[in-house]
Amino acid sequence: MAVDTIRDRYQAAGHDHLFTFWSTLEESERKSLSRQLENLDINRVNRIYKKAIASEKEAADPEPIEPLPVGACESVVNDPASEKRWRSEGLQAIARGEVGVLLMAGGQGTRLGSSAPKGCYDIGLPSHKSLFQYQAERIARLQVVAETEYNKPAGSVVVPWYVMTSGPTRRETEAFFTKNNFFGLSSKNVVFFEQGTLPCLTAEGKIMLESTSRVAVAPDGNGGLYAATRAPLSESNNSTVLSDLTDRGVLYVHAYCVDNCLVKVADPVFLGYCISKQADCAAKVVPKTSPSESVGVVARRGEKFSVVEYSEISKEQAELRNSKTGELAFNAANIANHFYTTSYLKSVESFEDDLAFHIARKKIPTIDLKTGEVVKPSKPNGMKLELFVFDVFPFTKRFAVLEVARNEEFSPLKNAPGTGADDPGTSRRDLLAQHKRFLERAGAQVKDGVEIELSPRVSYAGEGLEFVKGKTFTRSGYVENPEELDTLL
C-alpha cells in the first residue's frame, strides 16, 4: 500500500501525529513504520477505545450480581455414575477425531525468575519434565486410550494442539518444541500461532510512539485468542486456526492456560458433559477454598453469565451460603479452563464489537512529539487495552458450568520459588500427591514419605494401573513405563 494512502487513512482516523518524524527517518525506518501501520486496523482501534471508555463509565453503576442459579452447575465430585457417562461421550468424540486443544502459553516465567516461556519451566519433579512436556504426554496418552477403548488402529486418533504464543515467546517456544522432538507428538499436529497486540493509547485515545519510527504496543490479553484464531498462522502461511480446525473436522475445542500442572488436557469428562448439554461455551470451576480467596467466580450479572472478580464481591456476598447445601453461594472459582464448539469460535467475530476491552493505566515510555526525545514517565501516562478470555460468556446462548475437585485438577504456578502458595514447590507437591492417589485407588499401598512420579504416558487419570493391586511401594522414583514400577517395591 502506498504511503500516501496509509497516511490519508490515519489522518481520517485522527492519528496523523504518527507521521510527525517521517521527514527525519531513514528509508529502512520508513518501511518499518509504514508496514506496522498498514497491518494495523486503525478503525478497529478507535472502536475498541470508545467502547472501553464507555464501558468503564457504565461499570461505576454495575448490574447486580447473583450466584449461579440452581441447576446451572453440575459436579463430578462424588458422582461417579455421571463422570463415567460423560467420559464415555467425550472419549468417543476424541476417537472420532472431533476434538482439538487450544493452549494459552504467551506468558514468560518472569515471576519465577526465568525469562523463558512459562511452559518451558521445570517445577522440580524427579523427571525434570517441563509443563509443555507433561501436557504433550497427556495428549499422547489420551490418544492411545481412545484407540484402545474404541478399537481404533494405533496412531489413528489425533488430538491437534494449537499453541498460542506471544511476540516475545514464539521463537523460543517453537525452538523448545523442535529441540525436544515435539515430545513424541507429530509436528504436523502441533500448530503455533500468536496472540495479538494493540497500540498503547493516551487518555485521549491517541496512539503512542515507542520511538520515532515505531508504535508502542502491548499484548491484547488472553481474550485476544479469539481474534488470533482468525489471523494468518505466519507471514508465509495464510491458514488460520479456525480454517485448520475446519479442515480437520474438529467440532469441539478445549482451551486452558499453560501454568496448571494438574490440567486434564482434552478432558473427556468435561468434553462429554458439554456435548451432552449441547453447550456452545462452558467453564470448568473448582470450589473456593474460603470466602476471602482472591479469585474470580462464575456467576450471573443481570441475566447473563459472567466472571465476577473478587474485588467486585462484598464481604457479605462472599460469606453468603446456600441454605440447603451450606456451600458458599459464590463458590464457582474460575480456573481459565474452557470448552467451545468450533462454530462458536467462528461466531465470536460477529459480536466482537460488543466486547468491552479493559483499561489498564500504565507508565509507558514514549516519544515527546515536540522534541523527539524519549519520555520515561514517573506516573501512568497511557493505557493498555486487554480482553479477557471469559468476556465472551455474557454473549453465549448455551452456557454450561462443571465443578471438579481442586486437588485433582487445579494447581496454578504463579509465584516465585519458596513463596509457599501457587509456586513450583506446591505444584510439585500436588502432582506427586495425585500420583500417589492413582496408585492407592488401584489397590496399592505407598509407604509414608515415598514419592513416585508416573509419566503421563503410563496413566492419564489413574486408568491402566490395575496390575499394582496388592503391591506395597517402599522406594521413591520416577517411572516412564508400567514395568518400572516393580523396581520401587
Question: What features would you highlight for this structure?
Answer:
489 residues, alpha/beta, 3-stranded antiparallel sheet, 13 helices, 23 strands, 29% helix, globular
Topology:
Elements: H1 3-12, H2 27-38, H3 42-58, E1 65-66, E2 73-75, H4 80-95, E3 99-104, H5 131-149, E4 161-165, H6 170-179, E5 190-194, E6 197-199, E7 209-211, E8 214-215, E9 217-219, H7 225-228, H8 241-248, E10 252-257, H9 268-276, E11 281-287, E12 297-301, E13 304-308, H10 315-319, E14 332-341, H11 342-351, E15 358-362, E16 366-367, E17 374-375, E18 382-386, E19 399-403, H12 406-409, H13 424-441, E20 445-446, E21 452-454, E22 472-473, E23 477-479
Parallel strand pairs: 2-19, 3-4, 3-10, 4-5, 11-19, 20-22, 21-23
Antiparallel strand pairs: 1-12, 6-9, 7-8, 10-14, 11-14, 12-13, 15-18, 16-17
